[in-house]
Amino acid sequence: MKLHILTYLLFVLFSFAQSDSLHAAGNGKSSQAKLAATYSKKIMTGGMFSPSKDSISGIARRASIDTSRNNKIIGIREHSGGIYQLELDISDNQQNLSIGIYNLLGKKVVDVHQGSEFAGRSKMFDINVQGIPNGIYMCIVQGDNFRLAEKFYVSR
């Protein structure tokens, strides 16, 4: 226990010494607090304090997870009585594009699109929500090499 407290005190001293470089990088106090909370939790649970290792593995993990590249959901807007519109940017031609609406339990409630789609700006897809109750839903867009999700609300 004394070793953990000593390690934590060394971390606090180290973080105060590094605070000037954090301010120079443009990070605010809230990001310093998040950083301190993350590493103090690691230290108190017996983890190792290695900022360079953590930042490198974090970058590698984000690169492997981020398969969306330039594909993005621009927005989901109510168009007219019970019809919502999904605006989507697709950067590559997709052989297997699947768009579905899921409730928060993970059940598919509306199938919007199945099939291929060509690359281009601002593809519009109509979502018929007349058969589902008001609430919070997830729009999942899955292509050959990406998966996007966007939360939206249905209220009439």
Please give a quick description of this structure.
This protein has 156 residues and is α+β, with helices and mostly antiparallel strands. It has three helices and seven strands.
3D architecture notes:
Helices cover 35% and strands 40% of the residues. With 156 residues, it is of the alpha+beta class. It has two domains: 2-65; 72-154, Sandwich (Immunoglobulin-like). The strands form two sheets. The chain has a four-stranded antiparallel beta sheet, with no helix packed on it. It has a three-stranded antiparallel beta sheet with strand order 1-2-5, with no helix packed on it. Helix 1 runs antiparallel to helix 2 (29-44). The longest helix has 23 residues, at 2-24.
What structural class do you assign from the helix and strand content? alpha+beta
Q: Largest sheet at a glance?
A: 4 strands, antiparallel
Distance between the termini: 57 Å
Number of helices: 3
CATH topology of the largest domain, which one?
A: Immunoglobulin-like
Summed up, the domain count is: 2
Helix content: 25-40%
Radius of gyration: 23 Å
Q: Which spans of ≥5 residues are poorly predicted at pLDDT below 50?
A: 19-25, 44-54, 60-66
CATH architecture of the largest domain: Sandwich
What shape does the CA trace take? elongated
Order of helices and strands: HHHEEEEEEE
Approximate strand percentage? 35-45%
How do the strands line up in the largest sheet? 4-3-6-7
CATH class of the largest domain: Mainly Beta
Mean pLDDT, nearest integer? 76
Number of strands: 7
